[in-house]
Each structure stands twice: as structure tokens, then as C-alpha cells.
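Note to self: keep these together.
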Amino acid sequence: MSRGEFQTGLHAGFRTMFARMAGVALALALSVVSSSQPRAATFLEKNFWLEGPDYDRDLPACDFHAALDRIIGDFRTKESRFWNSELRIVGFENIHELDTMPWAAQSIPRRFCGGTAVVNDGVKRPIYYSIGEDTGLMGMDWGVNFCVTGLDRNWAYNAACRSAKP
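Structure:
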């Protein structure tokens, strides 16, 4: 073995040993960091932009046109995208309020509504929906959750839309 080959082999051995030692040191450092004691939140972590819920309980009425349009759009998207169906809601009848804020005072304000959805297959089906404050996109506006009885194919609201009612 020549002197150059010996130095190359020795250099490779040092690299391997250094890599192993670095791996052991990294594992030791991670174990020390992960076993450190938890600490309390600082003043900024506690109080920076964390004001809590601030509801004004200003909800649209059950027959509010924008809420009904949102139901029509969401129903159309759900039926076409997930169920490969051409069913559409073409109108509403007998829209009425079922209850407003039936739960505790600290709950998200909601207005529960019911009525009849006229579907393009000619069948009129009961519909139950709630309009909730700050439950829309990123909590910026009101949101609508709805269930059309007989067309809740994945039972998200249980049989006969029981979970969509107050």
C-alpha cells in the first residue's frame, strides 16, 4: 500500500468516525431538549391578540336571501362533486324559525330554521339549517349548515337530519 492510499483510507476512516460522533451528539442534544421542563407562557404569549369571543348576536333572518343562496350553491356543489348527481334546489317554501340560541349563553349564537326545499326532481323535502355567527370562511362572517331530509347520503346529520335541528 502506497503512502497516498494509506492517507486516503485514513482520511475516509476519520470522516466515518466524525459522522458517527456527530450523529450521537445530535441524538444527545435532541433528548436533552425534549426532556426539558415546560415553561409558562410569557406576557406577550398570553395577551397578544387573544381577546376571546366577541359576539354581537346579530344574525340574519331565516329567509335572508344570501343565506338561502349559500344553501343552494353548497347543495349543488355537494351533489355534483361527491355524489355525481344533477339534483339542485330550485326554491324554498314555508321557511320559518325553529329556535334562536337554544344552548348556554357562551355558545356561538345560532338561528335554527326549517322549511321545505323544492328540488329539481319534483320532490319537496324538509330542510333544516342553522345560521351561526362567525362560522363562515375564516370566522369573518356568518356561516350556514344545512341538511335536506332524504339527501343526507353520508348521514352527516344522522337519520332524518336530527343533528341539524336545535
